[in-house]
Write a structure and sequence with these properties.
Layout lengths: L3 H12 L17 H7 L25 E8 L4 E13 L2 E7 L5 H6 L5 E3 L6 E3 L2 E3 L11 E6 L2 E11 L4 E8 L3 E6 L5 E6 L3 E9 L4 E19 L12 E6 L5 E10 L7 E8 L5 E8 L5 E10 L3 E10 L2 E17 L3
Antiparallel strand pairs: 1-2, 1-12, 2-3, 3-4, 3-13, 5-6, 7-8, 8-9, 9-10, 10-11, 11-12, 13-20, 14-19, 15-18, 15-20, 16-17, 16-19
């Protein structure tokens, strides 16, 4: 069940919609293909036995991959995703997904790490806020400070077993987060955020072959919508329509239509979101929420050519929300191995 803090945050974000920036990604178009290839190079051979431990962050291999189970009861999400290290750029790992198996919901939920990842903390951004799930050395009692997009967190290593190469940590504050780390796998093997969502690594390997799509320097470019005070759509005025401008040099956007009830007890709700993208496509869905407590649904999509004006329409018939979130980014594609 969604915690009250998350509900308040979501409502506040919608009331203040339009304050989200549209910062454009850095342009490195002047770099040659040879320069980019050299810049992105990183080891490919699997690590030697005993190389990875708890004292220092791991050196991830180019082509190293992880399959994860992703779950969010709060947003009715249960899926599987594979993430791949496509190399390095600007001193950060380029974590993407197979181009033909791109799990947009993982990007929307910020679970697991996707996009630019910091080598020293395995950290990445959640809603443009840097989140560090670990801090080395992972020794029992070690602490660090970080953030999730809902606020500040304080992390502490609660258990560490150097012989086994495993550690557990708890992060508290704006959220309650449990992290498990196995050195041999190179990334947190599970992250669980109470009332929000979780992932768990179910498979891992090296030498991925094929095309990898990396969402680089992603920015939240809109989070707009309507909180519905009415229990019946017939009590509402005509559905509001707004235009949302997106500026920059972005190649693609991951969007989520977000619909559902926000109250613990109340009548059922009917919610609809429709958005006409600048590329001419329409993204829309309707959700009927039952009167069983907070219940939200996200409908994710990857939208090419997102720069321009979006026409969005929302209907919120119930004590809930109808909204749309957009995260825009540069797309970096890398072909690994012989694929």
């Amino acid at each position: 069940m969604l915690r009250r803090a998350g509900v308040v945050l979501l409502a506040f974000a919608l009331v203040t919609a339009g304050c989200v920036g549209t910062q454009a990604p850095e342009d490195d178009s002047e770099a040659s293909e040879e320069e980019l290839t050299a810049q992105n190079a990183s080891p490919t051979a699997p690590p030697a036995e005993g190389e990875r431990g708890l004292d220092e962050p791991p050196t991830l291999r180019q082509g190293e991959w992880w399959t994860v189970e992703l779950r969010s009861d709060a947003f009715n999400v249960e899926s599987e995703a594979t993430i791949v290290n496509a190399g390095m750029k600007d001193g950060r790992y380029m974590i993407g997904m197979p181009a033909d198996d791109y799990a947009v919901e993982a990007l929307i939920l910020h679970l697991p790490s996707i996009g630019p990842v910091q080598p020293d903390t395995l950290g990445y951004e959640s809603h443009d806020v840097p989140f560090a799930p670990a801090s080395f050395p992972l020794q029992e009692g070690e602490t660090w400070s970080t953030e999730w997009y809902t606020g500040e967190l304080e992390g502490e290593v609660t258990q560490a077993n150097p012989a086994e190469g495993t550690a557990e940590a708890e992060l508290t504050g704006a959220e309650n987060v449990n992290v498990t780390y196995e050195a041999g796998l190179g990334i947190p093997t599970s992250v669980e955020i109470d009332g929000y969502g979780s992932y768990e690594v179910t498979d891992h390997g090296y030498g991925f072959e094929g095309d990898v799509k990396v969402p680089w320097e992603h920015d939240i470019v809109f989070l707009n919508g309507r909180v519905g005070p009415a229990a019946d759509t017939s009590l509402q005025p005509a559905p509001p329509v707004e235009q949302i401008p997106v500026e920059g040099d972005y190649d693609e956007a991951a969007i989520a239509l977000l619909m559902g009830n926000l109250v613990v007890e109340g009548p059922p709700g009917v919610y609809r979101v429709s958005a006409d993208a600048p590329n001419g496509n329409t993204y829309e869905d309707t959700f009927v929420a039952e009167p069983t407590g907070p219940q939200l649904k996200i409908v994710p999509s990857a939208v090419p050519d997102p720069v321009g004006t979006w026409d969005a329409e929302y209907e919120a018939g119930g004590a809930g929300v109808a909204a749309i979130e957009g995260m825009a980014y540069e797309v970096i594609e890398r072909s690994l191995g012989d694929g």
